[in-house]
Amino acid sequence: MRSPSKDGAFASIISYDQLLSNIGGFSDDNNNLTRRILFLLESDWLYNENLLAELRKEIINRYVRASITQHALCRFLLNDIIRYYRTLCVDFEFKTCETDKSWGDRNIKLAFSRKLMYFSGVLVLAETVQQTCEKKRSILNECFSKDPIRRLTDICGIQAEKALKYYDQFLQALSDESSRELLQRTTDDRDNHSEEFRNLKNMGHHFSWELFNVLNKTYPPSHPIHMCLCI
Phi first, then psi: what are they for 146, rounded to 5°? Predict the structure, then answer.
């Protein structure tokens, strides 16, 4: 198993208050954004489950203020999740072009695991429409306590089946040591891309199309999530 990145967002101890302050402010750099959104979308506990739940609730309360109207979608949090995903995409270019990080494995993860994490967050926010403030907070707390796949299946049901078949093939590839090593060696030189890498990229496109279909089948055109993702 590879060790965590020595210069990653969670390479050092982060205080409780650090995750609650400067949301959207001048001091809200990429590391702060990454820690906060990953805490909501991916965190799990090794010790003190109650503290994790308490901090998650505090962060959600910062995003969903008591003044929010019932018909509104929680745009503050939705915009921050979108901002984080777009930051991931931009940072990919920086890390692979200027810091000599591996290209192939990061490219495929953007197409699958990072995208599923982001999409599952979008679905959770879509569920908060036409709910009271307390109900919005309750939905967010409940859904963010689950992993991204569980969020997708609980909200979308059988509609998610095709997308998850592609995701399963991605997981199979990453679980194979030789496939992981091949991805880590793959560069952006398309002339030298292996058939396996091309197949994974192709599946990534199909995965995206299926997620788009899932969104449209789960929520009617009148649902505000569609407009919020565009404007």
Answer: -105, 160
Kindly state the tokens that stand for 76: 């503050």
pLDDT value for 100: 81
98-104 long-range contacts, CB within 8 A, separation 24+: 102/183, 102/184, 102/185, 103/186, 103/187, 103/188, 104/182, 104/183, 104/184, 104/185, 104/186, 104/187, 104/197
Domain boundaries defined on the chain: 17-230
Q: How many CA atoms lie within 13 A of 194 on its CB side?
A: 15
Q: What is the pLDDT of residues 164-193, one digit of tens each?
A: 999 999 999 999 999 999 999 999 999 999
The pTM (predicted TM-score) of the whole model is 0.94
